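hiii so um. not sure if this is the right channel but i have a protein structure encoded as C-alpha cells and i wanna go backwards to a sequence. like what aa goes where. can anyone help
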C-alpha cells in the first residue's frame, strides 16, 4: 500500500523520552523540516506492479489530490490496468522512428512512410511527449494540413500513420488511449472518385504516339493489366507463348532512389491470360529489341543480385526508370495524342483501368478480374469497378420473359 510523505512537516518528539508530542486534542504536534517551503509538499510513494518504487509530488494545500492519486494507483494495480506515469514521457519523433524501423514493410514503403512523417507529422507533433498529445492537437494538426492545401486522400494516409504509431504506444503501455480515436476527432476521408476508363480510341492514339521501343508498354498495360513496375520487370522467361499465359513475378522499383527487382505489390505473383494480339506484338517487339539481361539487387540496394532478360529497357540498355519514363516518354506521348493530362487520372495506371473495364464489359467475373489484376481482395476490385459493370436490367427482363413469356403459361396472380 502506498503512503503520503509530508516533506514540510514531521511529528515532533519529546527530547527526553523520544515519544511523539501531542496537543490538547490528542493529535501529533508538527514541526517544520529542513525542507519547509522548498519544492512540492506532498510526495506519494508506492510500489509499481513489478516492485519498483515510484513517486509523485503535489503542492501545498493539495493533500486531497495526493490521496486521490494514491487510491487511484492502488485501484489500477488491483485491476491490472496500472500505467507508469513516466512511460509516456517519450517524444513522438523518437518513438515513431523506432516504430517505422520495427515494421515489416518493404524497404521502399518504409522509406516513403518515414519521409511523409518527417515532412508532415514531426514539424507539428514530433516534439510533444506521447502522453501530452491530445485530441485537440490532432484536430489542429489536420486543420493545418488542410490549410496547406493537402488533398483529403493524402491527409487520410498521414492520419493513418499517426494513428498506427499511437496505437502501438497504447499496446506498449506508453499511453492509455489513442487521441486519434477520440469521438471529437474526424478522420480525413477522400470522396469516392469514380474511375472513368479511357476509350479504345485514346489507347490506340497513345500507342501510336509512343516512341517505337516503348509502344509495347501500352499493350502490356491495356492488354494484360500490368502495373508500370511490372511492365519494366517483365522478362522473356515469364511469357508462355505456347500456353497463352504471362507469369507476373517481378517488378522494377526504386528504393532509396536506386533501382531494384522486387515481387509484385503485396508479394502477389499471378498468371494472366495472354491474348493472341498481345503475344504477336511481343514477338514483333523482341525481333526489333531483343531481350536484355539486366542484373539488379532483390528488394533493396543491398539485396541478392538477380538477373532477368527484360523485354522493356532504355536506350542506354539499362532497366527502365519510372521518373524518366514518365517525364520523357509518357508525358510527350499524351501530348502528341492530344490528351489533356489530368494529374492522378491519366498516368500509366489508366491503362490498367482500361483493361479492367474491357474485361467487365465482356462479362468476366469480378473474382477472375481480381486474380488477373493481382488484388488481394475481390471486394476491393468490386468496390473500385462496380460502376463499370454492365447493367443487369436487360438480363433480368430476358430471364423473367423466358419463364413467363408467350407459351410459358400465365403470370401468377398477385398476392
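sure thing!! here u go:
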Amino acid at each position: 500500500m502506498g503512503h503520503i510523505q509530508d516533506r514540510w512537516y514531521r511529528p515532533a518528539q519529546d527530547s527526553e523520552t523520544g515519544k511523539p508530542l501531542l496537543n490538547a486534542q490528542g493529535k501529533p504536534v508538527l514541526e517544520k523540516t529542513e525542507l519547509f517551503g522548498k519544492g512540492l509538499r506532498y510526495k506519494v510513494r508506492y510500489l509499481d506492479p513489478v516492485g519498483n518504487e515510484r513517486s509523485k509530488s503535489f503542492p501545498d494545500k493539495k493533500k486531497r489530490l495526493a490521496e486521490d492519486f494514491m487510491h487511484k494507483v492502488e485501484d489500477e494495480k488491483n485491476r491490472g490496468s496500472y500505467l507508469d506515469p513516466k512511460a509516456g514521457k517519450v517524444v513522438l519523433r523518437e518513438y515513431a522512428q523506432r516504430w517505422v524501423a520495427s515494421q515489416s514493410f518493404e524497404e521502399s514503403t518504409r522509406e516513403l512512410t518515414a519521409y511523409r512523417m518527417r515532412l508532415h507529422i514531426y514539424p507539428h507533433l514530433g516534439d510533444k511527449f506521447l502522453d501530452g498529445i491530445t485530441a485537440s492537437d490532432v484536430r489542429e494538426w489536420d486543420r493545418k494540413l488542410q490549410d496547406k492545401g493537402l488533398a483529403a486522400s493524402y491527409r487520410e494516409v498521414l492520419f493513418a500513420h499517426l494513428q498506427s504509431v499511437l496505437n502501438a504506444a497504447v499496446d506498449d503501455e506508453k499511453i492509455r488511449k489513442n487521441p486519434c480515436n477520440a469521438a471529437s476527432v474526424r478522420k480525413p476521408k477522400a470522396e469516392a472518385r469514380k474511375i472513368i476508363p479511357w476509350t479504345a480510341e485514346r489507347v490506340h492514339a497513345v500507342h501510336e504516339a509512343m516512341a517505337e521501343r516503348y509502344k509495347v508498354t501500352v499493350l502490356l498495360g491495356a492488354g494484360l493489366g500490368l502495373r508500370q513496375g511490372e511492365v519494366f520487370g517483365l522478362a522473356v522467361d515469364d511469357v508462355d507463348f505456347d500456353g497463352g499465359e504471362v507469369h507476373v513475378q517481378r517488378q522494377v522499383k526504386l528504393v532509396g532512389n536506386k533501382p531494384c527487382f522486387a515481387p509484385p505489390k503485396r508479394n502477389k505473383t499471378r498468371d494472366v491470360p495472354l491474348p493472341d494480339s498481345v503475344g504477336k506484338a511481343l514477338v514483333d517487339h523482341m525481333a526489333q529489341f531483343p531481350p536484355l539481361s539486366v542484373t539488379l539487387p532483390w528488394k533493396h540496394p543491398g539485396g541478392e543480385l538477380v538477373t532477368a532478360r527484360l523485354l522493356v529497357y532504355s536506350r542506354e540498355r539499362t532497366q527502365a526508370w519510372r521518373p524518366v519514363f514518365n517525364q520523357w516518354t509518357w508525358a510527350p506521348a499524351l501530348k502528341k495524342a492530344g490528351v489533356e493530362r489530368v494529374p492522378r487520372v491519366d498516368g500509366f495506371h489508366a491503362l490498367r483501368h482500361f483493361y479492367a473495364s474491357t474485361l467487365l464489359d465482356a462479362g468476366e467475373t469480378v473474382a477472375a478480374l481480381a486474380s488477373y489484376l493481382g488484388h488481394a481482395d475481390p471486394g476491393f476490385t468490386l468496390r473500385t469497378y462496380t460502376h463499370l459493370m454492365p447493367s443487369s436490367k436487360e438480363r433480368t427482363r430476358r430471364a423473367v420473359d423466358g419463364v413467363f413469356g408467350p407459351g410459358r403459361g400465365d403470370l401468377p396472380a398477385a398476392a
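oh and The chain has a mean pLDDT of 89.
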